[in-house]
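Fold it.
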Amino acid sequence: MVDYTSVPGGWLCNHSCNPNAAIYSDGEGRIQCTRAIAPGEEVTIFYGWVTQNEPGRDPCLCGAARCRGLINFDLSNRDAALVDEDSEAGQAVRARLDEYVVFLSSIGQEQVEETIGRTLAALRARLR
């Protein structure tokens, strides 16, 4: 996960569910356009926050046509306990994860999948 305050200019970019730029923390860090940005258009990035047991923590007001309504993607203890089960509840958790992965891919933010995996692992470890 990128620490936006450590990447030059990262703290100046607002979140969008349809970002026009991406932030990279490799080397000195950079913000790079992912599509054309019109003169006067705000430079936006996808924050990709994955939270634990905090549903609805960060409402999104980006106004994008495909706005998710939340900046954060929350994983709960229940999600971690059920994700590997073959039950209906486990299938529902996996479907929600799969839907989010498709969304991430559509905006070029596949790296957030790693954060999801680490968060699920941390939640599972706490449940043991």
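Residues 4-127 form one domain.
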